[in-house]
Amino acid sequence: MSTIDEELIEDFIGSDDEVIDEGRRQYEHFRFEVDKGQGALRIDKYLVNVMPSVSRNRIQEAADAGGIVVNGMPVKCSYKVKPEDSISVMLDYPRVECEIVPQDIPIDIVYEDEDIIVVNKQPGLVVHPGYGNYDGTLLNAIAWHLRDNPNFDANDSSMGLVHRIDKDTSGLLLIAKTPEAKTHLGLQFYNKTTYRRYQAVVWGIVKDDEGTIRGDLGRDPNDRLRFIVFPEGENPVAKHAVTHYKVLERLTYVTLVECRLETGRTHQIRVHMKHIGHTLFNDERYGGNLILKGVNSIRYKLFVKNCFAACPRQALHAKSLGFVHPRTGEQMMFNSELPPDMQDLIERWRGYSDVLSR
Predict the structure, then answer these.
(1) CB under 8 Å to 305, separation ≥6 — which residues?
(2) Which CATH superfamily hosts domain 195-357?
(3) Beta strand pairing status for 316-324 and 170-176?
(4) What percent of the chain has pLDDT over 90?
(5) pLDDT band at residue 355 under the 50/70/90 scheme
(6) In 3D, which of 110, 69, 93 has the Cα closest to residue 8?
(7) Overall pTM surpassing 0.85 (yes/no)
(8) Which of 44, 85, 166, 283 is catalytic?
């Protein structure tokens, strides 16, 4: 699904006193296909949930200008979306695609054959180009790596990334080198038959040794760059999400946990763990970059500050990945070591816990 930037909407609707030419030519920039299970919902409310950088007022203005089209016909904001509606956002100028150009960026390839590549992504590397990150991404690196492969086109969405992880999350990612491989692997992710294990350091001592978190994920109406948990069925555009967790180590004021994804939603582990009161350590977007647990002493605050410096991102790593090979049918399983920043972070907390236990 595409996302849309508010500046593009502003370019489209112009200033308040600009005359809109009804005979102008328009170009489709974004398209959304409404899910089969979608309930009746005003289109402005629907779009504000799927376009994270655009206010509802901007969507309403765009609709008034004829730029929101459903099944080929312009609609107003009062229109209620129906299952399988095709929604287009039309602008006055052709879309400028963000071309993925080959760039020599170091990446850790842990496995490769004629169909797939498994990469152990370093933290801080954006996975794919988007607004504000037009190059320097993992896909640019893959385009460079496969620059001599005549059958691979990094700009062809029928191949390439099979799934994604956040910029500051490290760990294993799967890339399909052929359309057939991507289709086969995509079905495995859709049918929840893949094996995915993450490790995370979270604030607080997780009480239960293991558990399951269930809760629909949707955008936070107060900050649409964040997600929150909604009760099941309450928000018609929120996505069903399930995370299973297990405690690996308790370290005084933080806990090392393993998370198994049953579904794969944006920010799923980050939001689910926050929902049960255990925000990921140093997760700035969700408040984990504050001291959420511990004692009120200068020495402790300095210790946590040094921990933040040691692991300057959310402490989350995609450690294990399993799937069936799209050509051979073989069960593939990959594991990766925690990156140095998370290892350093955990060792610091172990040392702190040892001192307190003496």
Answers:
(1) none
(2) Pseudouridine synthase (3.30.2350.10)
(3) parallel
(4) 64
(5) confident
(6) 93
(7) no
(8) 166
Residue 166: active-site member: yes
How many Cβ atoms are within 10 Å of 239's Cβ, its own excluded? 16
| Same fold for the pair 108-190 and 195-357 | yes
CATH homologous superfamily of 108-190 equals Pseudouridine synthase (3.30.2350.10)
Position 9 scores a pLDDT of 39
Least confident range from 83-97, 133-147, 170-184: namely 83-97
Which CATH code is given to the segment(s) 6-90?
3.10.290.10
Express each pLDDT in 219-266 by its tens digit: 888 887 899 999 888 887 788 999 999 999 999 999 999 999 998 888
Q: pLDDT-based confidence at 7, cuts 50/70/90?
A: very low
Hey, where are the domains in the chain?
Answer: 6-90, 108-190, 195-357
